[in-house]
Design a protein that fits this description.
The protein has 16 helices and 17 strands. The longest helix is centred in the middle third of the chain and has 94 residues. The radius of gyration is 47 Å and the shape is flat. Member of the two-component regulatory system DctB/DctD involved in the transport of C4-dicarboxylates. DctB functions as a membrane-associated protein kinase that phosphorylates DctD in response to environmental signals. This is C4-dicarboxylate transport sensor protein DctB.
Amino acid sequence: MFYWLRNFSRASLTFAGTLISALVVWLAVSSTGNLTIRELQSTGQARLALYDSSLRAAIDRYRYLPYVVARHHQVIQAISDPQTAQIANLYLERVNNRSGAAALYVLDRTGVTVASSNWNTPDSFVGEDYSFRPYYSLALAGNEGFFFGIGVTTGRAGVFISNPIFQNGEIIGVVVVKLELDEVEMNWQEGGETVFVADADGVITLTSRGDWKYRTLSPLSDTDRTRINLNRQYPGRELTSLNVGQQLAKGSGIVTISSHRYLFDSKPIRGSDWRIFYLTSMDQVTDRQAAVMLIAIIGGGMIVLLILFLRERELKLASQREARELERIQALNTRLEEEIAERRKTEDELRGTQNELVQAGKLAALGQMSAAIAHEINQPITAIRTFCASAKLMLDRGKTDQLDQNISQISSLTERMGAITGQLKTFSRKSTGVLEPVDLKVALGNALQLLRPQLESENCSLERNEPDYPLIIRADLVRIEQICVNIIRNALDAMEDSGVKRIRIDLATDADDVTMHITDTGPGMNDETLALLFDPFFTTKDPGQGVGLGLSVTYGIVRDFGGTIKAYNTTMGGACFEVRLPLLRNSKQ
């Protein structure tokens, strides 16, 4: 692999290795710095969004309060009638205690406090004149006031949010809520990150760095400083500048504060004239670059030494390389032969497993269909017995002229038994899709013809309502008849002890489906029966009277035809089975 090293001297390899190592060190340090900065920028943007949302949440929690209080009748009355101010004091005290704000107070049109939540404290705002505050003039002009400053009464800084008080369409006063954000600022400080908020004048109002509090980003002009003093916004504070306004004006980048470099990002705070800044020390970039540089230098030196070592080794091992390569190829061939044999064995096992699964699926499906046929074949046998008994009775009475009809019925039933047992063959060809258009009305008529003797013997009346056009579905005629027979026979069994036995069958269509409702006048079903009704081998009949497969088979047939079946109790008593099957397109006339 390193045979080409034999063509160069040791000195030339050392020079080339040193030059390449220096280039690699420079590229590694440069790319590490860029990558680290991008990572810090991504992290900074996420942290900035988090700080911004937490601060806005702390403020928005109380932003609605002045608006609501300004519309309370006790507050409005306190301005109109100063004698009721004590009632307003108590109201403001209760509201402020529930909200958790620092203070809640009401000013009249002159800016004098007429009621306050801290009316009974030494720092009460009652009687104080705050007309010099911007939040008062903004609210008096009909706008929401938002102002940060140090309280002239309490000496504690906070955010003041105001809202005008209206009476008969005129502004008669102002409601102000004061929020102290000390807890937010404390959380920032405990987080160990550098974040601060500056107002429209560039004054730092909230910060995780205590030494930056009330510093300005750029020196204030005489006009701005005079305005701030008139507003008594930061009394007793010098408002010295950090001289970083021009650097921060870009919104993001690198800023140097007190000889320390930071990567910063910023965004405006919605609903205010503030801007929040998040700073990340560039020491992380420098430290990582230094570590990468050290690693790269060591690695470069090791590479140079390795190249020299390989050159010497290459000269010694050239004669042995071909032998080792031959051994490697032989080992590779042996391993490939083993893998090929293992793969062939695995393929044979998978093919056998697949055949077993297919056979198991066929046996399970045929077993289920055989159970259905064993259950349903009892119906035509019972009918044949009935017709035979009837024929015997006719012979005894000498009415041989009517025997032809009974024999025809018996012949028809034997043909039906043949059709039922032929379902095994139909099922075996199921995957070929041997469904065909079937008129549901015809299938229902065949089923009723089969069950008519039993209906008459049990004195059960039948009501059949259906449209006068064919109801064509894609299905199998024998199995559709099986659905009808199963449900109607269950209805007959359910009405065994009923005084009035009546079955009503309603056929209807909509744009996509054919719906068949079969309703009886039996006692209905309880919740447990409804839940287990279509489970295999579940039956409410006495032992020996049924195996619990009829409705389970019916459920499977309906599902195979792409339909649904459900049962429920009617409001008039009795049960109703609803079968919904897809209507064949263009079949409705």
